[in-house]
Design brief:
By secondary structure, this protein is α+β, with helices and mostly antiparallel strands. It folds into two domains: 137 residues, MutM-like, N-terminal (N-terminal domain of MutM-like DNA repair proteins), CATH 3.20.190; 138 residues, Helicase, Ruva Protein, domain 3. It contains nine helices and twelve strands. The strands form three sheets. Strands 1-8-9-5-6-7 form a six-stranded antiparallel beta sheet. Strand 3 and strand 4 form a beta hairpin. Helix 1 packs across helix 8 and helix 5 crosses helix 8. The longest helix is centred in the C-terminal third of the chain and has 21 residues. The radius of gyration is 20 Å and the shape is globular. 43% of the residues are buried. InterPro entries: FPG_cat (IPR012319), FPG_N (IPR035937), H2TH_FPG (IPR015886), Ribosomal_uS13-like_H2TH (IPR010979), Znf_DNA_glyclase/AP_lyase (IPR000214), Znf_FPG/IleRS (IPR010663). Pfam families: Fapy_DNA_glyco, H2TH, zf-FPG_IleRS. It comes from Antiquaquibacter soli.
Length: 323
C-alpha cells in the first residue's frame, strides 16, 4: 500500500499539471460514470494529500477523494514531469524492491523535475517511468475507474479502495477522522496531538503507528524503520513510552516523510553519501535498517532480524537493539 510520501508526490503531479485547467472526466470502466458526469468539464482548483488520502477540488465546489489502498495506482501520460531519481531506474521508484541503477542528480523534487516530457509515469506504492507515447491521449488500458484529461496530460486511476465525489463538508469530515500529517498540520499542534494520543493508549506502539486516526501516512515500511531508529520495542504500550521518545518519533516521522517526498524513496538510513546513497536509491537491500530483512544480521548488533504478524501485518525488528 502506498505510504504518505507517495500520495503527496501524486498530489504534486496534479498540482503541476492539472490545477488551473479544465478537465475532461470520464469512467472508461463505467463504475464511476455518475461521479465523472458531476466533475466533467470543470476547472481543477486544488490538489492535496493528507496521509494516504488525496483530494482534488474543482471550481464548482466538489471534490474527488481517492484512497489507493493496496491495489490502486495512477498512470500519468502526455506532457508530464519525472524526477531525475527515476530517469533510468529499471524498476518502480518508491517501492521497497526497486531494481536497477539510478543515475543523475538527486536534487529536491520540485527543482529536479525538469522540463515536461511526452511519456508515461505510473505512481502508486512505487513509481515507474515507461516508454514515450506514440499518440495522445493513449487508449485506456485495463479497468480504468477514472480518466482525467487536459489538452496535454492524462491521468488514469485503477483499482482504488475509495473513489468518491464529495462536498466540502464531507471532505472535512474525512480529514477530521485522520491523525496529524507533518506536511499538512501546524508542527507544534500536530506534535502535541500525536503525543497526547499515544500517551493515553494501552495499545502497542507498533499498532498505534499504523492507526491512521493516530498519525497519517505511516505504513509497514516506515513503521518498522521508525521503531528501530528509536530503539523502541514494538510491543510497548503507547502509554508506557517516555514522552520525550514519543516526541522524538514524531520529529523523526516528519524528517523521513520529507526525505521520501523529496527523493521518491523510503530512505531510512542516515549518513549515506556518494555510491552508498546511489545504492540506497536503487535497492531496498541498501536502504533500510530492518524492513524485509528477516533472518539477516542487524546492521548494528548482528542479531538476526525477527519477523512476526501483528494486526494482520508483518513487523520487522531487532530483539536486541529494540529489547
Amino acid at each position: 500500500m502506498p505510504e504518505g510520501h507517495s500520495v503527496h508526490r501524486i498530489a504534486r503531479q496534479f498540482a503541476l499539471h492539472f490545477v488551473g485547467k479544465p478537465v475532461a472526466v470520464s469512467s472508461p470502466q463505467g463504475r464511476f460514470a455518475e461521479g465523472a458526469r458531476m466533475l466533467d468539464g470543470h476547472v481543477m482548483t486544488d490538489a492535496r494529500a493528507v496521509g494516504k488520502q488525496m483530494f482534488l477540488e474543482f471550481e464548482h465546489g466538489l471534490w474527488l477523494r481517492v484512497h489507493l489502498g493496496i491495489y490502486g495506482a495512477w498512470d500519468f501520460a502526455g506532457d508530464i514531469t519525472a524526477d531525475a531519481t527515476i530517469a533510468s531506474a529499471n524498476g518502480r521508484m518508491g517501492q521497497t524492491n526497486q531494481r536497477g541503477t539510478v543515475v543523475g542528480a538527486f536534487e529536491d523534487s520540485l527543482s529536479s523535475i525538469g522540463a515536461p516530457r511526452r511519456t508515461r509515469l505510473r505512481m502508486a506504492e512505487q513509481e515507474k517511468l515507461e516508454a514515450p507515447l506514440e499518440s495522445f491521449p493513449p487508449d485506456p488500458v485495463g479497468a480504468v475507474r477514472v480518466r482525467l484529461l487536459t489538452d496535454v496530460t492524462c491521468a488514469d486511476l485503477r483499482g482504488p479502495t475509495a473513489c468518491d465525489v464529495l462536498g466540502p463538508e464531507e471532505v472535512q469530515a474525512v480529514i477530521d477522522k485522520l491523525g496529524p500529517d507533518p506536511l499538512v498540520d501546524s508542527p507544534k499542534k500536530a506534535e502535541e496531538r500525536f503525543t497526547e494520543t499515544v500517551l493515553r493508549k494501552p495499545t502497542p506502539i507498533a499498532l498505534l503507528l499504523m492507526d491512521q486516526s493516530v498519525v497519517s501516512g505511516i505504513g509497514n515500511v516506515y513503521r518498522a524503520e521508525l521503531l528501530f531508529r528509536a530503539r523502541l520495542n514494538p510491543h510497548t504500550p503507547g502509554r508506557d513510552v517516555p514522552e520525550e521518545l514519543v516526541r522524538a518519533l514524531w520529529k523523526d516521522w516528519s524528517k523521513l516523510l520529507k526525505i521520501g517526498v523529496r527523493t521518491g524513496q523510503m530512505l531510512t538510513m542516515d549518513g549515506l553519501r556518494g555510491k552508498a546513497y546511489e545504492a540506497a536509491l536503487a535497492s531496498r537491500a541498501d536502504r533500510h535498517w530492518v524492513y524485509h530483512r528477516t533472518g539477516l544480521p542487524c546492521r548494528v548488533c548482528g542479531t538476526p532480524i525477527l519477523m512476526e504478524e501483528i494486526g494482520g501485518r508483518k513487523l520487522y525488528w531487532c530483539p536486541v537493539c529494540q529489547a
